[in-house]
Amino acid sequence: MKLNELINGICYTSTVGDIDDREIESIEFDSRKVQANSMFVAIEGGSVDGHQYISGSIARGATVILCEVLPHDLVDGVTYICVADSNITLGLLANNFYGSPSRRLKLVGITGTNGKTTTATLLYDLFKMLGYKVGLISTVIYRIHDQDVESTHTTPDALSLNKLLSEMVDVGCEYCFMEVSSHSIVQGRISGLEFVGGVFSNITHDHLDYHKTFAEYIRAKKMFFDTLPKGSFALVNADDKNGGVMVQNCVADVYKYSLQSVVDFRCKISEMLFDGMLLSIDSVELWVSFLGRFNAYNLLSVYGTAILLGADKGEVLCAMSGLRSVTGRFEYVRSESGLTAIVDYAHTPDALENVISTINEIRNLDQKLFVVVGCGGDRDSTKRPKMARIAAADSDLAILTSDNPRFEKPDDILTQMRVGLDPRSKYLVISDRREAIKSAVMMAGSGDIILVAGKGHETYQDIQGVKHHFDDKEELLNSFEIAKK
Protein backbone atom coordinates (compact mmCIF):
# COMPACT_ATOMS: atom_id res chain seq x y z
CA MET A 1 0.00 0.00 0.00
CA LYS A 2 1.16 3.53 -0.76
CA LEU A 3 2.11 5.44 2.38
CA ASN A 4 -0.20 8.36 1.57
CA GLU A 5 -3.13 5.90 1.38
CA LEU A 6 -2.07 4.17 4.58
CA ILE A 7 -1.98 7.39 6.61
CA ASN A 8 -5.26 8.71 5.19
CA GLY A 9 -7.31 10.04 8.10
CA ILE A 10 -4.37 9.80 10.52
CA CYS A 11 -3.76 12.86 12.67
CA TYR A 12 0.00 13.47 12.80
CA THR A 13 1.89 16.35 14.37
CA SER A 14 4.91 16.41 12.06
CA THR A 15 6.70 14.49 9.31
CA VAL A 16 10.22 14.20 8.01
CA GLY A 17 10.80 12.74 4.55
CA ASP A 18 8.63 11.52 1.66
CA ILE A 19 4.99 10.58 2.51
CA ASP A 20 3.61 10.30 -1.02
CA ASP A 21 4.96 7.52 -3.21
CA ARG A 22 6.66 5.24 -0.71
CA GLU A 23 5.40 1.65 -0.85
CA ILE A 24 4.69 -0.12 2.45
CA GLU A 25 4.84 -3.94 2.54
CA SER A 26 3.91 -4.42 6.21
CA ILE A 27 3.23 -2.63 9.50
CA GLU A 28 5.06 -3.87 12.59
CA PHE A 29 5.26 -2.81 16.23
CA ASP A 30 7.62 -5.68 17.12
CA SER A 31 11.05 -4.74 15.74
CA ARG A 32 12.00 -8.43 15.38
CA LYS A 33 9.36 -8.81 12.65
CA VAL A 34 10.50 -5.82 10.60
CA GLN A 35 11.57 -6.55 7.02
CA ALA A 36 12.29 -4.55 3.87
CA ASN A 37 9.83 -1.68 3.27
CA SER A 38 8.11 -2.07 6.64
CA MET A 39 6.59 0.70 8.70
CA PHE A 40 7.72 0.38 12.30
CA VAL A 41 5.36 1.79 14.92
CA ALA A 42 7.17 2.71 18.13
CA ILE A 43 4.88 2.15 21.10
CA GLU A 44 5.67 3.08 24.67
CA GLY A 45 4.45 0.03 26.59
CA GLY A 46 4.17 -0.69 30.29
CA SER A 47 7.62 -2.31 30.50
CA VAL A 48 9.28 -1.64 27.13
CA ASP A 49 9.50 1.56 25.08
CA GLY A 50 9.48 0.80 21.36
CA HIS A 51 11.32 4.05 20.63
CA GLN A 52 14.57 2.38 21.70
CA TYR A 53 14.20 -0.10 18.83
CA ILE A 54 13.89 2.48 16.03
CA SER A 55 17.52 2.21 14.89
CA GLY A 56 17.38 -1.58 14.92
CA SER A 57 14.20 -1.52 12.85
CA ILE A 58 15.81 0.72 10.26
CA ALA A 59 18.76 -1.70 10.10
CA ARG A 60 16.28 -4.52 9.36
CA GLY A 61 14.75 -2.60 6.48
CA ALA A 62 12.08 -0.29 7.91
CA THR A 63 11.64 2.72 5.62
CA VAL A 64 8.95 4.49 7.67
CA ILE A 65 9.00 5.14 11.41
CA LEU A 66 5.86 6.21 13.23
CA CYS A 67 6.61 7.49 16.71
CA GLU A 68 5.57 9.89 19.44
CA VAL A 69 9.04 11.41 19.84
CA LEU A 70 11.45 11.88 16.92
CA PRO A 71 14.82 10.20 17.47
CA HIS A 72 17.86 12.46 17.88
CA ASP A 73 19.64 11.04 14.83
CA LEU A 74 17.55 10.95 11.65
CA VAL A 75 18.57 8.58 8.84
CA ASP A 76 18.53 9.79 5.23
CA GLY A 77 15.95 8.02 3.06
CA VAL A 78 13.73 7.11 6.03
CA THR A 79 10.36 8.80 6.56
CA TYR A 80 9.42 9.76 10.13
CA ILE A 81 5.84 10.46 11.17
CA CYS A 82 5.21 11.87 14.62
CA VAL A 83 1.82 11.33 16.35
CA ALA A 84 0.32 12.05 19.76
CA ASP A 85 -0.62 8.41 20.53
CA SER A 86 1.04 5.49 18.74
CA ASN A 87 -1.36 2.93 20.24
CA ILE A 88 -4.49 4.55 18.84
CA THR A 89 -2.77 5.33 15.54
CA LEU A 90 -1.73 1.69 15.12
CA GLY A 91 -5.40 0.66 15.16
CA LEU A 92 -6.25 3.27 12.52
CA LEU A 93 -3.31 2.18 10.35
CA ALA A 94 -4.26 -1.48 10.65
CA ASN A 95 -7.83 -0.64 9.66
CA ASN A 96 -6.56 1.17 6.53
CA PHE A 97 -4.01 -1.51 5.65
CA TYR A 98 -6.58 -4.32 5.70
CA GLY A 99 -9.28 -2.35 3.87
CA SER A 100 -11.60 -1.44 6.78
CA PRO A 101 -12.81 -5.02 7.35
CA SER A 102 -15.12 -4.12 10.26
CA ARG A 103 -17.26 -2.09 7.82
CA ARG A 104 -17.77 -5.16 5.63
CA LEU A 105 -19.42 -7.34 8.25
CA LYS A 106 -21.55 -6.76 11.35
CA LEU A 107 -19.20 -6.55 14.33
CA VAL A 108 -20.62 -6.82 17.85
CA GLY A 109 -18.43 -6.26 20.93
CA ILE A 110 -19.15 -7.84 24.32
CA THR A 111 -17.56 -6.32 27.41
CA GLY A 112 -17.88 -6.69 31.18
CA THR A 113 -16.12 -8.61 33.93
CA ASN A 114 -17.89 -11.96 33.72
CA GLY A 115 -19.81 -13.64 30.90
CA LYS A 116 -17.94 -12.21 27.90
CA THR A 117 -16.66 -15.54 26.61
CA THR A 118 -19.93 -17.37 27.11
CA THR A 119 -21.99 -14.63 25.47
CA ALA A 120 -19.68 -14.20 22.47
CA THR A 121 -19.39 -17.95 21.91
CA LEU A 122 -23.13 -18.56 22.22
CA LEU A 123 -23.83 -15.76 19.74
CA TYR A 124 -21.37 -17.40 17.34
CA ASP A 125 -23.06 -20.80 17.82
CA LEU A 126 -26.53 -19.31 17.52
CA PHE A 127 -25.91 -17.46 14.26
CA LYS A 128 -24.24 -20.51 12.75
CA MET A 129 -27.37 -22.47 13.66
CA LEU A 130 -29.42 -19.77 11.93
CA GLY A 131 -27.44 -20.43 8.75
CA TYR A 132 -24.91 -17.58 8.69
CA LYS A 133 -21.16 -17.57 8.23
CA VAL A 134 -19.78 -16.14 11.46
CA GLY A 135 -16.50 -15.13 13.12
CA LEU A 136 -15.57 -15.31 16.80
CA ILE A 137 -12.85 -13.55 18.80
CA SER A 138 -12.75 -14.83 22.38
CA THR A 139 -10.49 -15.73 25.28
CA VAL A 140 -10.72 -19.43 24.39
CA ILE A 141 -10.42 -19.43 20.59
CA TYR A 142 -10.62 -17.29 17.46
CA ARG A 143 -12.82 -18.71 14.71
CA ILE A 144 -12.97 -17.71 11.05
CA HIS A 145 -16.27 -19.50 10.36
CA ASP A 146 -15.19 -23.17 10.61
CA GLN A 147 -11.45 -22.52 10.96
CA ASP A 148 -10.01 -22.39 14.48
CA VAL A 149 -7.10 -20.06 15.27
CA GLU A 150 -5.30 -20.25 18.60
CA SER A 151 -6.26 -17.45 20.95
CA THR A 152 -3.41 -15.36 22.34
CA HIS A 153 -5.34 -12.60 24.15
CA THR A 154 -8.97 -11.92 25.00
CA THR A 155 -8.73 -9.12 22.43
CA PRO A 156 -5.72 -9.43 20.07
CA ASP A 157 -3.47 -6.53 19.06
CA ALA A 158 -4.78 -4.14 16.40
CA LEU A 159 -2.81 -5.69 13.52
CA SER A 160 -3.85 -9.26 14.34
CA LEU A 161 -7.41 -8.12 14.95
CA ASN A 162 -7.84 -6.42 11.59
CA LYS A 163 -6.12 -9.32 9.82
CA LEU A 164 -8.59 -11.75 11.45
CA LEU A 165 -11.53 -9.59 10.45
CA SER A 166 -10.19 -9.32 6.90
CA GLU A 167 -9.92 -13.12 6.68
CA MET A 168 -13.49 -13.43 7.96
CA VAL A 169 -14.67 -11.08 5.23
CA ASP A 170 -12.72 -13.06 2.62
CA VAL A 171 -14.58 -16.30 3.47
CA GLY A 172 -17.96 -14.56 3.50
CA CYS A 173 -18.65 -14.02 7.19
CA GLU A 174 -21.62 -11.73 7.76
CA TYR A 175 -21.16 -11.36 11.53
CA CYS A 176 -18.35 -11.36 14.06
CA PHE A 177 -18.85 -11.56 17.82
CA MET A 178 -15.91 -10.31 19.81
CA GLU A 179 -14.90 -10.03 23.44
CA VAL A 180 -13.65 -6.54 24.24
CA SER A 181 -11.32 -6.45 27.24
CA SER A 182 -10.67 -3.35 29.33
CA HIS A 183 -6.96 -3.61 28.46
CA SER A 184 -7.72 -3.49 24.73
CA ILE A 185 -9.94 -0.42 25.13
CA VAL A 186 -7.38 1.74 26.94
CA GLN A 187 -4.51 0.44 24.78
CA GLY A 188 -6.29 1.47 21.59
CA ARG A 189 -6.42 -2.05 20.13
CA ILE A 190 -9.99 -1.49 18.92
CA SER A 191 -9.41 2.01 17.52
CA GLY A 192 -10.59 2.29 13.94
CA LEU A 193 -13.10 -0.56 14.24
CA GLU A 194 -16.77 0.08 13.49
CA PHE A 195 -19.19 -1.81 15.72
CA VAL A 196 -22.87 -2.28 14.91
CA GLY A 197 -23.49 -3.02 18.56
CA GLY A 198 -22.03 -3.38 22.04
CA VAL A 199 -23.15 -5.56 24.95
CA PHE A 200 -22.43 -4.95 28.65
CA SER A 201 -22.67 -7.96 30.98
CA ASN A 202 -21.64 -6.74 34.44
CA ILE A 203 -18.72 -5.24 36.29
CA THR A 204 -17.03 -6.40 39.49
CA HIS A 205 -13.56 -5.96 40.96
CA ASP A 206 -10.93 -7.33 38.57
CA HIS A 207 -7.71 -6.26 36.85
CA LEU A 208 -6.90 -3.71 39.55
CA ASP A 209 -3.26 -4.71 39.08
CA TYR A 210 -3.50 -2.91 35.73
CA HIS A 211 -6.16 -0.22 36.21
CA LYS A 212 -5.15 0.52 39.84
CA THR A 213 -8.65 1.66 40.92
CA PHE A 214 -12.17 0.36 40.39
CA ALA A 215 -13.17 3.78 39.05
CA GLU A 216 -10.51 3.51 36.32
CA TYR A 217 -11.69 0.00 35.47
CA ILE A 218 -15.26 1.29 35.06
CA ARG A 219 -14.00 4.21 32.98
CA ALA A 220 -12.16 1.81 30.66
CA LYS A 221 -15.32 -0.21 30.01
CA LYS A 222 -17.37 2.96 29.53
CA MET A 223 -14.95 4.22 26.85
CA PHE A 224 -16.15 1.42 24.57
CA PHE A 225 -19.76 2.62 24.72
CA ASP A 226 -18.68 6.27 24.41
CA THR A 227 -17.27 5.46 20.96
CA LEU A 228 -20.19 3.46 19.55
CA PRO A 229 -21.53 5.31 16.47
CA LYS A 230 -25.04 6.61 15.86
CA GLY A 231 -27.28 3.93 14.44
CA SER A 232 -25.56 1.16 16.40
CA PHE A 233 -27.04 -0.39 19.54
CA ALA A 234 -25.89 -0.64 23.15
CA LEU A 235 -27.44 -3.51 25.12
CA VAL A 236 -26.80 -3.26 28.86
CA ASN A 237 -27.63 -5.28 31.96
CA ALA A 238 -30.16 -3.15 33.84
CA ASP A 239 -29.64 -5.21 37.01
CA ASP A 240 -26.00 -4.15 37.31
CA LYS A 241 -25.75 -0.77 39.06
CA ASN A 242 -23.11 0.35 36.55
CA GLY A 243 -25.22 -0.55 33.52
CA GLY A 244 -26.58 2.99 33.35
CA VAL A 245 -23.11 4.46 33.83
CA MET A 246 -21.88 2.67 30.71
CA VAL A 247 -24.31 4.52 28.43
CA GLN A 248 -24.34 7.99 30.02
CA ASN A 249 -22.57 9.53 27.01
CA CYS A 250 -23.56 6.94 24.43
CA VAL A 251 -25.05 8.10 21.10
CA ALA A 252 -26.01 4.55 20.11
CA ASP A 253 -29.59 3.32 20.59
CA VAL A 254 -29.74 2.01 24.17
CA TYR A 255 -31.61 -1.16 25.15
CA LYS A 256 -31.73 -3.00 28.46
CA TYR A 257 -32.15 -6.58 29.64
CA SER A 258 -33.13 -7.75 33.12
CA LEU A 259 -34.23 -10.61 35.34
CA GLN A 260 -35.72 -8.18 37.87
CA SER A 261 -37.52 -5.32 36.16
CA VAL A 262 -39.65 -4.38 33.16
CA VAL A 263 -37.23 -3.43 30.36
CA ASP A 264 -36.73 -4.20 26.66
CA PHE A 265 -35.74 -7.86 27.19
CA ARG A 266 -36.89 -9.85 30.21
CA CYS A 267 -36.25 -13.34 31.55
CA LYS A 268 -37.52 -15.42 34.46
CA ILE A 269 -36.11 -18.69 35.81
CA SER A 270 -39.06 -21.05 36.28
CA GLU A 271 -37.17 -24.20 37.25
CA MET A 272 -33.54 -25.29 37.71
CA LEU A 273 -32.06 -28.81 37.84
CA PHE A 274 -28.53 -30.17 37.32
CA ASP A 275 -29.35 -30.91 33.68
CA GLY A 276 -30.59 -27.40 32.84
CA MET A 277 -33.27 -24.86 33.57
CA LEU A 278 -36.65 -23.70 32.33
CA LEU A 279 -36.65 -20.06 31.31
CA SER A 280 -39.38 -17.66 30.32
CA ILE A 281 -37.94 -15.14 27.86
CA ASP A 282 -40.34 -12.42 26.74
CA SER A 283 -43.20 -14.65 27.98
CA VAL A 284 -42.07 -17.69 25.94
CA GLU A 285 -40.89 -20.78 27.87
CA LEU A 286 -37.87 -22.78 26.74
CA TRP A 287 -35.63 -25.42 28.30
CA VAL A 288 -31.87 -24.74 28.11
CA SER A 289 -28.93 -26.93 29.10
CA PHE A 290 -27.41 -24.22 31.30
CA LEU A 291 -27.53 -23.52 35.02
CA GLY A 292 -27.54 -20.44 37.19
CA ARG A 293 -28.76 -16.87 37.21
CA PHE A 294 -25.48 -15.77 35.61
CA ASN A 295 -26.22 -18.01 32.62
CA ALA A 296 -29.80 -16.72 32.47
CA TYR A 297 -28.28 -13.24 32.06
CA ASN A 298 -25.88 -14.52 29.40
CA LEU A 299 -28.66 -16.20 27.43
CA LEU A 300 -30.91 -13.17 27.72
CA SER A 301 -28.17 -10.92 26.34
CA VAL A 302 -27.69 -13.41 23.49
CA TYR A 303 -31.41 -13.28 22.75
CA GLY A 304 -31.54 -9.48 22.91
CA THR A 305 -28.51 -9.11 20.63
CA ALA A 306 -29.97 -11.50 18.07
CA ILE A 307 -33.28 -9.63 18.00
CA LEU A 308 -31.49 -6.26 17.66
CA LEU A 309 -29.56 -7.71 14.73
CA GLY A 310 -32.87 -8.46 13.03
CA ALA A 311 -33.19 -12.20 13.64
CA ASP A 312 -36.64 -13.80 13.87
CA LYS A 313 -37.82 -14.25 17.48
CA GLY A 314 -39.25 -17.74 16.93
CA GLU A 315 -36.14 -18.99 15.13
CA VAL A 316 -33.88 -17.52 17.81
CA LEU A 317 -35.75 -19.14 20.72
CA CYS A 318 -35.90 -22.48 18.91
CA ALA A 319 -32.14 -22.39 18.23
CA MET A 320 -31.35 -21.31 21.81
CA SER A 321 -32.88 -24.50 23.16
CA GLY A 322 -30.17 -26.38 21.24
CA LEU A 323 -27.20 -24.35 22.51
CA ARG A 324 -24.64 -26.10 24.70
CA SER A 325 -22.33 -24.75 27.39
CA VAL A 326 -18.90 -23.35 26.59
CA THR A 327 -15.82 -25.43 27.46
CA GLY A 328 -14.75 -24.80 31.05
CA ARG A 329 -17.89 -22.85 31.94
CA PHE A 330 -19.93 -24.88 34.45
CA GLU A 331 -18.80 -28.02 32.64
CA TYR A 332 -19.49 -31.14 34.68
CA VAL A 333 -18.38 -34.77 34.70
CA ARG A 334 -19.70 -37.64 36.80
CA SER A 335 -17.87 -40.63 38.27
CA GLU A 336 -19.21 -44.17 38.30
CA SER A 337 -19.72 -43.81 42.05
CA GLY A 338 -22.16 -40.92 41.54
CA LEU A 339 -19.80 -38.05 42.33
CA THR A 340 -20.40 -34.85 40.34
CA ALA A 341 -17.45 -32.59 39.53
CA ILE A 342 -17.81 -29.15 37.96
CA VAL A 343 -15.04 -27.24 36.17
CA ASP A 344 -15.55 -23.50 35.89
CA TYR A 345 -13.42 -20.53 34.86
CA ALA A 346 -14.65 -18.47 37.84
CA HIS A 347 -11.58 -16.41 38.74
CA THR A 348 -13.20 -13.35 40.34
CA PRO A 349 -15.05 -13.16 43.67
CA ASP A 350 -18.36 -12.41 41.96
CA ALA A 351 -18.03 -15.26 39.46
CA LEU A 352 -17.06 -17.74 42.18
CA GLU A 353 -19.98 -16.65 44.36
CA ASN A 354 -22.38 -17.03 41.41
CA VAL A 355 -21.23 -20.57 40.64
CA ILE A 356 -21.30 -21.70 44.28
CA SER A 357 -24.75 -20.17 44.89
CA THR A 358 -26.05 -21.97 41.79
CA ILE A 359 -24.76 -25.30 43.09
CA ASN A 360 -26.22 -24.63 46.55
CA GLU A 361 -29.56 -23.79 44.99
CA ILE A 362 -29.72 -27.21 43.35
CA ARG A 363 -27.98 -29.63 45.71
CA ASN A 364 -29.77 -31.64 48.38
CA LEU A 365 -29.05 -31.22 52.08
CA ASP A 366 -27.21 -34.55 52.21
CA GLN A 367 -24.88 -33.61 49.31
CA LYS A 368 -21.57 -32.12 50.43
CA LEU A 369 -19.83 -29.44 48.38
CA PHE A 370 -16.02 -29.33 48.07
CA VAL A 371 -14.49 -26.23 46.43
CA VAL A 372 -10.97 -26.36 44.98
CA VAL A 373 -9.77 -22.85 44.18
CA GLY A 374 -6.64 -20.76 43.75
CA CYS A 375 -5.69 -17.27 42.54
CA GLY A 376 -3.39 -16.30 39.69
CA GLY A 377 0.01 -14.75 40.29
CA ASP A 378 1.07 -11.31 39.01
CA ARG A 379 -2.56 -10.24 38.94
CA ASP A 380 -4.96 -8.30 41.19
CA SER A 381 -4.00 -9.43 44.71
CA THR A 382 -6.94 -7.70 46.43
CA LYS A 383 -9.33 -10.43 45.33
CA ARG A 384 -7.34 -13.27 46.94
CA PRO A 385 -8.77 -13.09 50.50
CA LYS A 386 -12.25 -12.52 49.05
CA MET A 387 -12.02 -15.66 46.90
CA ALA A 388 -10.94 -17.77 49.88
CA ARG A 389 -13.67 -16.35 52.11
CA ILE A 390 -16.40 -17.08 49.54
CA ALA A 391 -15.11 -20.62 48.90
CA ALA A 392 -15.04 -21.49 52.60
CA ALA A 393 -18.23 -19.73 53.68
CA ASP A 394 -20.52 -21.39 51.15
CA SER A 395 -19.12 -24.93 50.99
CA ASP A 396 -18.54 -27.89 53.30
CA LEU A 397 -14.80 -27.77 52.65
CA ALA A 398 -12.59 -25.35 50.73
CA ILE A 399 -9.26 -26.59 49.38
CA LEU A 400 -6.98 -23.67 48.61
CA THR A 401 -4.41 -24.47 45.94
CA SER A 402 -2.22 -23.07 43.18
CA ASP A 403 -3.70 -21.58 40.00
CA ASN A 404 -1.28 -19.95 37.52
CA PRO A 405 1.37 -18.64 39.93
CA ARG A 406 3.37 -17.12 37.06
CA PHE A 407 6.39 -15.43 38.66
CA GLU A 408 5.05 -15.43 42.22
CA LYS A 409 5.60 -18.16 44.81
CA PRO A 410 2.41 -20.24 45.22
CA ASP A 411 2.80 -20.26 49.00
CA ASP A 412 2.85 -16.45 49.07
CA ILE A 413 -0.43 -16.33 47.13
CA LEU A 414 -1.99 -18.91 49.46
CA THR A 415 -0.89 -16.94 52.51
CA GLN A 416 -2.71 -13.88 51.12
CA MET A 417 -5.80 -15.99 50.43
CA ARG A 418 -5.89 -17.28 54.02
CA VAL A 419 -6.15 -13.72 55.36
CA GLY A 420 -9.79 -13.72 54.28
CA LEU A 421 -10.76 -16.84 56.23
CA ASP A 422 -12.80 -16.94 59.39
CA PRO A 423 -11.04 -18.91 62.19
CA ARG A 424 -13.97 -21.34 62.15
CA SER A 425 -13.68 -21.95 58.40
CA LYS A 426 -13.31 -25.52 57.18
CA TYR A 427 -10.44 -25.53 54.74
CA LEU A 428 -7.25 -27.24 53.64
CA VAL A 429 -4.22 -25.77 51.92
CA ILE A 430 -2.70 -28.06 49.28
CA SER A 431 -0.33 -26.11 47.06
CA ASP A 432 -0.02 -28.81 44.37
CA ARG A 433 -3.16 -28.45 42.22
CA ARG A 434 -3.08 -32.07 41.07
CA GLU A 435 -2.95 -33.29 44.69
CA ALA A 436 -5.69 -30.82 45.69
CA ILE A 437 -8.07 -32.20 43.03
CA LYS A 438 -7.19 -35.80 43.91
CA SER A 439 -7.74 -35.12 47.63
CA ALA A 440 -11.18 -33.65 46.94
CA VAL A 441 -12.17 -36.74 44.94
CA MET A 442 -10.88 -39.09 47.66
CA MET A 443 -12.76 -37.26 50.41
CA ALA A 444 -16.05 -36.85 48.54
CA GLY A 445 -18.69 -39.54 48.75
CA SER A 446 -21.33 -40.77 46.36
CA GLY A 447 -23.68 -37.93 45.42
CA ASP A 448 -21.32 -35.23 46.64
CA ILE A 449 -20.22 -32.29 44.46
CA ILE A 450 -16.75 -30.93 43.71
CA LEU A 451 -16.21 -27.51 42.15
CA VAL A 452 -12.77 -26.90 40.62
CA ALA A 453 -12.65 -23.19 39.93
CA GLY A 454 -10.36 -20.66 38.31
CA LYS A 455 -8.87 -22.23 35.18
CA GLY A 456 -11.83 -23.60 33.24
CA HIS A 457 -10.84 -24.12 29.60
CA GLU A 458 -7.10 -23.64 30.22
CA THR A 459 -4.91 -26.67 29.58
CA TYR A 460 -1.75 -25.39 31.25
CA GLN A 461 -0.27 -24.04 34.45
CA ASP A 462 1.94 -20.97 34.05
CA ILE A 463 4.89 -21.38 36.43
CA GLN A 464 7.94 -19.08 36.22
CA GLY A 465 7.17 -18.23 32.60
CA VAL A 466 6.80 -21.86 31.49
CA LYS A 467 3.42 -23.33 30.56
CA HIS A 468 3.13 -26.89 31.85
CA HIS A 469 0.30 -29.08 30.58
CA PHE A 470 -2.53 -29.12 33.12
CA ASP A 471 -6.23 -29.69 32.50
CA ASP A 472 -8.66 -29.61 35.46
CA LYS A 473 -11.17 -31.87 33.71
CA GLU A 474 -8.45 -34.34 32.77
CA GLU A 475 -7.17 -34.38 36.34
CA LEU A 476 -10.66 -35.06 37.67
CA LEU A 477 -11.14 -38.02 35.33
CA ASN A 478 -7.72 -39.40 36.31
CA SER A 479 -8.62 -39.02 39.99
CA PHE A 480 -11.91 -40.85 39.40
CA GLU A 481 -9.90 -43.80 38.03
CA ILE A 482 -7.51 -43.74 40.99
CA ALA A 483 -10.46 -43.65 43.43
CA LYS A 484 -11.89 -46.83 41.84
CA LYS A 485 -8.79 -48.88 42.69
List the helices and strands and how they pair.
Layout: H1 3-6, E1 14-16, E2 26-28, E3 38-41, H2 54-60, E4 64-67, E5 79-82, H3 86-97, E6 106-111, H4 116-129, E7 134-137, E8 141-144, E9 147-150, H5 158-170, E10 175-179, H6 182-186, E11 197-200, H7 208-211, H8 214-226, E12 233-237, H9 243-246, E13 253-258, E14 265-273, E15 276-281, E16 284-288, H10 293-308, H11 313-320, E17 331-334, E18 340-344, H12 349-362, E19 369-373, H13 384-393, E20 397-400, H14 410-418, E21 427-429, H15 433-443, E22 449-453, E23 460-463, E24 466-469, H16 472-484
Parallel strand pairs: 2-3, 3-4, 4-5, 6-10, 6-11, 7-10, 11-12, 12-13, 13-14, 18-22, 19-20, 19-22, 20-21
Antiparallel strand pairs: 1-5, 7-8, 8-9, 14-15, 15-16, 17-18, 23-24
Helix coverage percent: 25-40%
Roughly how many Å apart are the termini? 65 Å
**Poorly predicted residue ranges:** none
Q: Find the CATH superfamily of the largest domain.
A: Mur-like, catalytic domain
Which CATH class of the largest domain? Alpha Beta
Q: Classify the secondary structure makeup into a structural class.
A: alpha/beta
Number of domains: 3
For the largest beta-sheet, the strand count, sense and barrel status come to: 11 strands, mixed
What's the multimeric state? single chain
Strands of the widest sheet, in order across it, are: 9-8-7-10-6-11-12-13-14-15-16
